Amino acid sequence: MSGIGTHTKGDTDMSKANGTGVTKLFEDAHAEGTLSMAGLQTLTVVDLGAQIQAGLGIHVDDVQASEVVLVTVMPDDSGSISHSGHTKTVCDGHNLVLDALLASQQKDGVLFHTRYLNGHVLNPFRPLEDVVRMHSKNYSADMGTPLYDQAVVLLGTVLAKAQEFSGNGVPVRTVTLLITDGADAGSQKARAKDVAALVKDLQRVENHIVAAMGIDDGVTDFRRVFQEMGISDRWILTPGQSAQEIRAAFQVFSQSAVRVSQGAASFSRTALGGFGA
Questions:
Q1: pTM greater than 0.85 (yes/no)
Q2: Which of 80, 84, 130, 131 is deepest in the core (most CB within 10 A)?
Q3: End-to-end alpha carbon distance in the chain
Q4: How many CB atoms lie within 10 A of CB 73?
Q5: Cβ atoms within 10 Å, residue 60
Q6: Which domain of life is it from (predicted)?
């Protein structure tokens, strides 16, 4: 697997920021049977083009890898994270995933994307060596929990980027982690069933994994929340409130992400086995 260039047209070329390019990707995915009508409507009824464009990052022409793995993490930046004292732990967990991938033999074919739960894009899809680490200067957990709205944007970004590569004949696999310490609060446009429509489409193609982590807040049934969003039980993590338990959950995800990067056969075993693989 050859490497990924670091000079990225996608990071700077915002000529498609009106979303027309993104819409075309979704229409192509629907035409090819990747995206259902329900999924297409979820992504196009509300204009999400500019938000999704912000995460697409490196241009497909700047990637020389024979196959690509897209790893996406959505850290919760709601106020309850800081109130619970988890700010540093979430930063450490995100960076732990990055370090595990950097240590893998297949690192040159991996692109990484970080979008916070409230929409801030820390890392549009980019090579691992260019990824910005999370720390107290770029991560402030002081917002709400628009879980459904932002899950739609995040999964739409993953789907659009995967479509870019597959449309150019490059095999692509993806693994995505949503993180929250509470149930949805504040979503304006999307509901759990909208997220589920996208998750179902991604799972049907059989080269995508969508996982979720619910950090215990003492009241939320995270398995129910995530199952309503279409996420398979085997891809749900429910750590307790201690830093040790949260870091351990990130470690489990990082191991899965590394396995996904190791090839199609390893991906299939991982996808079937979930976090227990």
A1: yes
A2: 131
A3: 25
A4: 29
A5: 16
A6: Bacteria
Q: How many domains is the chain partitioned into structurally?
A: 1
What is the residue range of 186's domain? 15-58+67-272
Tell whether 224 is covered by a domain: yes
Q: Does residue 39 lie within any of the structural domains?
A: yes
Ranges of residues in the chain with a pLDDT under 70 are 1-20, 277
CATH of the domain at 35: 3.40.50.410
Q: State the pLDDT at residue 3.
A: 55
CA dist., res. 149 & res. 108, Å (int): 32
Residue-level pLDDT at 91: 98
**Which segments within 25-151 are labelled E, that is strand?**
68-74, 110-115, 121-127
Residue 227 dihedral angles phi and psi, to the nearest 5°: -65, -35
Q: What single string gives the DSSP state of each residue in 152-204?
A: HHHHHHHHHHHHHHHHTT--EEEEEEEEESS--B--SS--HHHHHHHHHHHHH
d(CA 175, CA 164): 16
Residue type, 8: T
